[in-house]
Every structure is written in C-alpha cells, then in structure tokens.
Amino acid sequence: MSPKYLSVEYYDAYNISFRLSNYVWSVITRWNYFEKDTVGKQYARAVDSISSNIAEGFGRYSKKDKIRFYYYSLGSVLECKDWNNKCHERSIINHEEYNYIKAKLDRLPKEINQLLQNLTFTGVSKIQMNFNRTLLVRSSELLVSGEI
C-alpha cells in the first residue's frame, strides 16, 4: 500500500479559488484591448493570487507563515470583489457573470477562515492530523493482518 499524502487540492478554498481564476480568465480573454489592459490585467492577477497564496501557505511549515499567506488570499478576495463591482458598473461583464463571480467570492472568506481556524500549535491543520491518524490506523491494521 503506497502512502497517501494530503495535498492542497483537498481544501475547498483552493478548489473554489482555482476554478474561479480560470473562469475569470476565460471572461477577460473576450474583452477588448483597452478593457484587458486597464482592468483585466489587474483583475486576473488578483484572482490568480487567491489560490496561489493558499497553495503557498499550505506548503509552509510554520504556523506564522501559513497564517500570513492565508491572510494574503483574503486580501485578494476583497480586491477581486472590488474589480468585479467595477466591471459590472462599467458594463464590462454581464449580470450572469457578475452573479457567478460574486457568489464564489462571497463563499471564499468562509472557506479561508476555516483554514485559519484549523491551524494548531504545530502548524499542521486538524484535517491533516486526522488524515495522518487514519493512515496510521489503517497501516496498523494491515500489519496486524499480515497484509504488509
């Protein structure tokens, strides 16, 4: 039995933000040059940085580092909300695109705050600890049964 390791893709905050960044990218690529150059570049960077900061925080060992990067991602969510509102007000995006993006941006702070709340003294999340405990229990069962 090969060991399984927890990855950043396990977290809803990462998955939602990753999919959102690809969605916003597909919306921005349809804009005219002026809209892409003025608003689009900054919007794309902001939305990309949400999942990037979550991934970077996940990869850090110390609790302080994890917290710092998760807070950066929260700041990027707020920046994206601002860009989304501006795009809607300026009629760059339609109402359906605006609502879809807004719904995802409204959900992300809750998901990111869950990451922050799950941090323990060791810098390892409770989810990671439970995942590792499950692996250890399963490995012990296999050892006892003689399967490994």
Describe the structure.
The chain has 148 residues and is mostly helical. It is built from five helices and no strands. It has helices at 12-28, 33-59, 63-89, 95-118, 126-145. 78% of the residues lie in helices and 0% in strands. It is elongated, with a radius of gyration of 19 Å. The protein starts with 11 loop residues before the first helix and ends with a helix. The protein has a single domain (8-119), classed as Up-down Bundle (de novo design (two linked rop proteins)), CATH 1.20.1440.
Tags for this entry?
148 residues, mainly alpha, de novo design (two linked rop proteins), 78% helix, 0% strand
CATH topology: de novo design (two linked rop proteins)
In the CATH hierarchy, what is the class? Answer: Mainly Alpha
Largest sheet: none
CATH architecture: Up-down Bundle
Strand content is under 5%
Question: Between the first and last Cα atoms, what is the distance in angstroms?
Answer: 8 Å
Q: Write down the overall geometry.
A: elongated
Low-confidence stretches: 134-140
Mean of pLDDT:
85
What's the helix count?
A: 5
- SS content category: mainly alpha
CATH superfamily: 23S rRNA-intervening sequence
Number of strands: 0
Oligomer class: single chain
Domain unit count: 1
Helicity level = over 70%
Gyration radius, rounded: 19 Å
Order of helices and strands: HHHHH
